Amino acid sequence: MPDETPPLAPPGVTPKAAYHHGDLRAQLIAAVRELVETHGPDGFSVAEAARRAGVSSAAPYKHFKDRQEILRGVVSEAMDRLRVAMEAGAAAHPVGSLEAVAAVGQAYVAFAKGEPGVFRLVFGLTEGHEDAPDLLAKGEGCFGVVVRAVAACLDLPPGDPDVQRRAYMLWSFVHGHSFLHIDMKTKVTTARIDDWDYLMGISRAILMDATRA
Amino acid sequence: MPDETPPLAPPGVTPKAAYHHGDLRAQLIAAVRELVETHGPDGFSVAEAARRAGVSSAAPYKHFKDRQEILRGVVSEAMDRLRVAMEAGAAAHPVGSLEAVAAVGQAYVAFAKGEPGVFRLVFGLTEGHEDAPDLLAKGEGCFGVVVRAVAACLDLPPGDPDVQRRAYMLWSFVHGHSFLHIDMKTKVTTARIDDWDYLMGISRAILMDATRA
DNA sequence: TGTACATCAGTGAACGCGCGTTCACTGATGTAC
DNA sequence: TGTACATCAGTGAACGCGCGTTCACTGATGTAC
């Protein structure tokens, strides 16, 4: 407690005071997130991100190999937050309830609406990042949340093919709704749709009905 | 028929012979389409497109105001093709059949798979193009194809709110499936899904079941 | 049919710009003794 | 506790590059008489 200013820079305190502010990596990611949000994916530059973080344009290269790695960092962080939000959605309702399933979808849609630029980036980053096994794993982690909610609702094991199939249907649905919403906010579709009713309706349709051929 | 080479450049014949080849606009759009397909949206430049069309880097400005207008041209052309494909899908099955609805979706998915870069561009072009009333109209045109197929299937007028709602559900679905497919080809989802059965199943679920709350 | 002229659709050289990245450097931090 | 030193995390200047766009131009085309 005697060290107020100099060392390891407590989050947010006197960000310019410390020579090594120790927070640069996180601050750069936050800056890029902002830039992506306001200028769209690809609308960011290392230089601008450094400027926003208050460091020289060379500083980012102490934390990231290159431009691509910064983007991957942003995506990785965003996917963590997305998964956490989905899990929180499910946890707010009884295990196995239809509401829990709908809530997972609602968290997903809320994320897309709240950070459309980052959301687009997350799903558009396939160009040249086919490898990146950590990102792939995080994607599976998100899908896993859907699968578990669906499995609990149908009272089947998560590995059951029917669970996988219906979970994927739900995910397609929610994913498409998210994209349509952020792409043409309020346009094209004349019907104003309340998310919760909508999501409950579609969850019911996909989980309760006999959708087998 | 006496004019084989010089005038108005018949489509594709001796593209270098004519000084005014008369086809530049279309050729530039084709070049950009290719670039977007191989380098992703934003991965194109006016200079490179001109190079591919075999003209100087200033030539495109005789046909387009600026970079943005070229992109809009590509999107506009792509939306025309998408609508035509959707209409052809519907027309291949009896009016009012579930198959006609599924075929519209299948055409949509096929477009996304066939030209993932352009598909992404079409739906990601909202940054700074909120205006562009012609593109908006074309978007509504595509949605109209879905609406008409659904309306015929339910034997209701296209303006019916339930038709609009179910058409939007279907569209979300197909849109999400398309994006998921092109974003993580074959990954994440373990289930290999045959599009036709899948689309028929989901069309049935959305159109035939009581999805009202 | 022939000629004069306006218009159209290109050229190619040039501009200023911001970017990604590298480089030698330097001041602050953490550690061994 | 004090000192020497390796390491870490920044600086700032510089590089080469490709881009978007403009400009004065020129050759080909279409049209009026």
Explain what you see.
The structure is a homodimer of 213-residue chains. Chain A is built from eight helices and no strands. In chain A, helix 3 (67-91) packs parallel to helix 6. Chain A is elongated and about 60 Å long. Residues 1-17 of chain A have low confidence and may be disordered. With 213 residues, chain A is mostly helical. Chain A binds a DNA duplex (33 and 33 nucleotides) through helix 2.
In short:
Two copies of one chain form a homodimer. By secondary structure, chain A is mainly α. Chain A contains eight helices and no strands.
Question: Which helices and strands appear, and what pairs or packs with what?
Answer:
The structure is a homodimer.
Chain A: H1 24-39, H2 46-53, H3 67-91, H4 98-114, H5 116-124, H6 133-154, H7 161-183, H8 195-208
Helix pairs in contact in A: 1-2, 1-3, 1-5, 3-4, 3-5, 3-6, 4-5, 4-6, 4-7, 4-8, 6-7, 7-8
The first copy, chain A, binds a DNA duplex (33 and 33 nucleotides) through helix 2.
What are the main properties of this structure?
homodimer; about 210 residues; mainly alpha; Tetracycline Repressor, domain 2; elongated; disordered N terminus; DNA-binding
- Quaternary form: homodimer
Helix percentage of chain A:
55-70%
CATH homology group of the largest domain in chain A: Tetracycline Repressor, domain 2
What is the typical, i.e. mean, pLDDT of chain A? 85
Please report which band the strand proportion of chain A falls in: under 5%, 5-15%, 15-25%, 25-35%, 35-45% or over 45%.
Answer: under 5%
Overall morphology of chain A? elongated
Number of helices of chain A: 8
Tally of DSSP β-strands of chain A = 0
Q: How many strands, what sense, and barrel or not for the largest sheet of chain A? A: none
Give the CATH level 1 class of the largest domain in chain A. Answer: Mainly Alpha
- Quickly give the structural class of chain A: mainly alpha
- Ends apart, CA distance between termini of chain A: 67 Å
Give the uncertain stretches of chain A in residue-range form.
1-17
Element pattern of chain A in H and E:
HHHHHHHH
> Which fold does the CATH topology of the largest domain in chain A refer to?
Tetracycline Repressor, domain 2
Biggest interface between chains: A-B, 49 and 49 residues
CATH architecture of the largest domain in chain A, by name, is: Orthogonal Bundle
How large, in whole angstroms, is the Cα Rg of chain A? 20 Å
